[in-house]
Amino acid sequence: MPTLSLYLSPMAASQSLPSFRHSLRRRRLHHPNVSSTPLPSTSLYLKPTPTAATTGTATATATAIATSSLSAAAAGSFPLSTDTASAISFDELDRLLTAKNFRQADEETRRLLIALAGEAAQKRGYVYFSEVQFIAADDLKAIDDLWQKYSDGKFGYSVQKRIFEKMNGDFTKLFKKLGWMKKLDTEIEQYNYRAFPTEFIWELTEETPEGHLPLTNALRGTQLMSKILSHPAFGDAIEGETEEKREEKVAEDAIGGLKKGLKSMSDRLFKRDYSF
């Protein structure tokens, strides 16, 4: 049997390779479902691995998105703490006083004081006298300014402060002057606290006592009222009252000096002469 030679000449090899490729293309055309298995990948065709820069950029982007989401949630979804200035609004008090709804305005004032005094006061539902110091002067003055504005200067803490000074710090006299106490129908002159809320005056009239509102509960004692009226927010009222008293004293001294001067002149002019 003749021996088959496995040797191909260079020309035969160059001719047989295109024939093989052509045959392969024909098989793919006639059998489209036959998948061609790719050649094993070499190091030249490996998929690029993420570099440090790429990883860092992706991490930074994810962090930025997360931070942005948290910021948006904090601004909209989550309620602000009541101990922040932005959480306290005086709009409702302004609205009630504008409408001359003094009864509800007094309740709103009480609510604001509790909110401004801190978390302990909020849980308790009322303010201890020792917590008044935690209320910012600007906030307390804002409340007072609204009361004065919508009452033509008749209501407010600073108004009560001036009256308190004129009463020489006597709370009984102050409460009588504010109309918080009523005279009893007895043979002996006696006073008692008015019943809340029916016996208080919730209208602004000529008969309404000056400083009648806002109310401060005096049934637990006078320390709370004392701390409110002595708050730094009303330092201007104290200075104004002191200046007023100083001017009154100067006027009294001037009048007294004038009287003494006139008396001395009168004595000189009409001095009796007993020399005859």
From TrEMBL:
Organism the protein comes from: Cucurbita maxima
Q: Extract the ranges annotated as region (Disordered).
A: 30-50
One BP annotation, GO: chloroplast-nucleus signaling pathway
GO terms (molecular function) for this protein are: tetrapyrrole binding
One Pfam family assigned to this protein is GUN4
List the CDD domains.
GUN4 (cd16383)
Gene Ontology CC annotations of this record: chloroplast
Organism lineage string: Eukaryota, Viridiplantae, Streptophyta, Embryophyta, Tracheophyta
- Stretches of Low complexity bias are at 35-50
Q: Which gene encodes it?
A: LOC111497734
Where's the GUN4-like domain? 86-232
Name of the featured protein: Tetrapyrrole-binding protein, chloroplastic-like
